[in-house]
What we know:
Oligomer: single chain
Radius of gyration: 19 Å
Distance between the termini: 59 Å
Order of helices and strands: HHH
Amino acid sequence: MSVPVEPAPTTPEGHVSRLETLREMLEQSRSVVAALTTSDPTRAYLALREQREILREISEIQGNGQSTKGVTLEDQLAAARAEREQREAARAAGA
């Protein structure tokens, strides 16, 4: 079974979003499971387990159900940098 694969969207810097990659994997997995359900139920079960793992990773990225709608990757990176700088400043002040 061959599923057409389109390249994942990239950021202006050329990076591929992990979330977008996982969403594509989930979509492809759903197609595979649909085809395997009747032809090979054992493999369908394994593919469903993989789907569950993909969903878990997506949930982690999205903050366990907290919506990140409207938050850009740039915003997320800026927030992560600010947190790191705060930790480093606190570490430097305590040393």
